[in-house]
């Protein structure tokens, strides 16, 4: 079992050579990844959408090719409940050893230990603890509580040409306008949606999907998953039926691997904006008995959960602001550009709202089931036409994938039938604001930001 541990760094650490970054200016000068020990050593880092804490194994590889052991913990460390340990400011669990995230010295935060067989790297959770309290503090919550960032937010650039553990480059509480091309569109995110367990993860409202001669309108909230496609039954059946009709593929069987090279695409619609993904992304290679074939990678769970594989956004710059419930998506920069870092506080700066952004709201009612409070959520905004025509040509792979729909706001619209979902209630506070105007905190440099990134590379199916 993973062991959760609450670590409180002594206040005297602020006086060390590795003092905490200034909370108002040094958010612009983040250095990538986790460093720990005394003196701190940079270790290989992996980012996860579905976790909220740091996960620190017994030993880790360093970024310079060496390795380091996790700092020792006192044998009599007090535990709050099974697997959760607490350390106090005047009696830090790791003694004089320090833990840094992107250059920020962590103060109060939760982490999990991994057994000796775990990968030799630190996994960094980008989610939130669903019901935060004094013994369970997510990494992003810790950064905000310490005053390093103004909103619980992050931005992620995936460098497709970098090695696996250097591909993800993350900024906390800020975004870099030099990391994307063209406009950035913001869609509704939801801070009350969980992964089905304990963590709040990046979540997005899906209006529907469309392909050649088919479309489905069914508003549902989906979470962004590290490595899994899982659709509600109506989405799963619509997509499966499409491949059967279009290519005579029975998605329950092996399919020709030529589908991986298809230039046709499926459209997802978020808050009235279209995002295209190549059809081949829904299939994966399978090796069995020295034979390679391809199979449908989309599943349908008993709980009707909706998970979008992060593969959907690997060619895009992704920005998540939990406090203001916004997700920004833009085409990732294809050539090096000067960095222009802007701090986030009241939403995603310079992002254009999707067509139905302001209408994509949740309605909550609370019920009690087995002594647990649950939210019954509904979403509704006008429906609109989705493109179902031919989808051939290189434009499907070369053009900007995120575009406004062509439907008129005033024509052919009707109220969608609400889609209900059940979620564990979240009583955590959040600083809500509908504004996305920047607060003037922008820093530009003429050089390219030298990320020393150790992130999660392209996830394999």
TrEMBL record:
Transmembrane segments: none annotated. The keyword Nuclease does not apply. Gene3D superfamilies: Acid Proteases. InterPro entries: PEPTIDASE_A1, Peptidase_aspartic_dom_sf. It holds the Pfam family Asp. Residues 411-422 have a biased composition (Basic and acidic residues). It comes from the Eukaryota. Residues 1-16 form the signal peptide. Residues 30-330 form the Peptidase A1 domain. SUPFAM superfamilies: Acid proteases (SSF50630). Residues 405-441 are annotated as: Disordered. Residues 425-441 have a biased composition (Low complexity). The keyword Manganese does not apply. Keywords: Disulfide bond, Signal. GO terms for molecular function: aspartic-type endopeptidase activity. This is Peptidase A1 domain-containing protein. It comes from Clavispora lusitaniae (strain ATCC 42720).
């Amino acid at each position: 079992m993973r062991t959760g541990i609450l670590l409180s760094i002594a206040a005297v650490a602020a006086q060390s050579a590795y003092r905490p970054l200034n909370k108002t200016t040094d958010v612009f000068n983040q250095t990538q990844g986790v460093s720990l020990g005394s003196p701190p050593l940079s270790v290989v880092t992996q980012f996860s959408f579905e976790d909220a804490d740091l996960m620190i194994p017994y030993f880790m590889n360093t970024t310079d090719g060496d390795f380091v052991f996790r700092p020792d913990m006192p044998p009599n460390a007090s535990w709050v409940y099974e697997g959760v340990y607490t350390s106090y400011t005047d009696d830090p669990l790791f003694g004089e050893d320090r833990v840094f995230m992107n250059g920020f010295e962590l103060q109060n935060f939760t982490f999990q230990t991994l057994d000796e067989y775990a990968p030799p790297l630190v996994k960094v959770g980008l989610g939130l603890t669903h019901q935060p309290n004094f013994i369970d503090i997510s990494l992003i919550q810790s950064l905000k509580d310490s005053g390093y960032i103004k909103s619980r937010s992050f931005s992620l650039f995936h460098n497709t040409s970098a090695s696996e553990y250097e591909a993800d480059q993350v900024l906390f509480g800020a975004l870099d306008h030099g990391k994307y091309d063209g406009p950035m569109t913001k869609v509704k995110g939801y801070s009350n949606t969980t992964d089905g367990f304990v963590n709040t993860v990046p979540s997005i409202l899906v209006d529907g999907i469309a392909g050649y001669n088919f479309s489905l309108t069914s508003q549902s909230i989906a979470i962004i998953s590290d490595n899994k496609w899982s659709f509600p039954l109506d989405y799963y059946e619509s997509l499966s039926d499409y491949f059967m009709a279009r290519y005579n593929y029975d998605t329950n069987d092996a399919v020709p691997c030529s589908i991986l090279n298809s230039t046709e695409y499926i459209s997802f619609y978020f808050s009235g904006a279209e995002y295209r993904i190549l059809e081949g992304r829904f299939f994966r290679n399978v090796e069995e008995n020295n034979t390679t074939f391809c199979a449908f990678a989309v599943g349908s769970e008993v709980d009707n959960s909706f998970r979008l594989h992060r593969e959907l956004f690997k060619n895009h710059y992704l920005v998540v602001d939990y406090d203001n419930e916004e997700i920004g998506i833009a085409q990732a920069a294809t050539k090096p550009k000067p960095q222009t870092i802007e701090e986030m506080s009241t939403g995603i700066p310079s992002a254009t709202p999707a067509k139905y952004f302001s209408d994509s709201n949740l309605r909550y009612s609370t019920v009690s089931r087995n002594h647990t409070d649950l939210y019954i959520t509904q979403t509704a905004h006008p429906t609109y036409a989705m493109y179902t025509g031919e989808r051939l040509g290189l434009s499907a792979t070369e053009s900007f994938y995120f575009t406004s729909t062509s439907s008129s706001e005033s024509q052919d619209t009707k109220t969608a039938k609400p889609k209900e979902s059940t979620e564990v209630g979240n009583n955590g506070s959040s600083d809500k604001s509908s504004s996305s105007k920047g607060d003037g905190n922008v820093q530009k440099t003429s050089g390219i930001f030298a990320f020393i990134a150790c992130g999660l590379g392209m996830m394999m199916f």
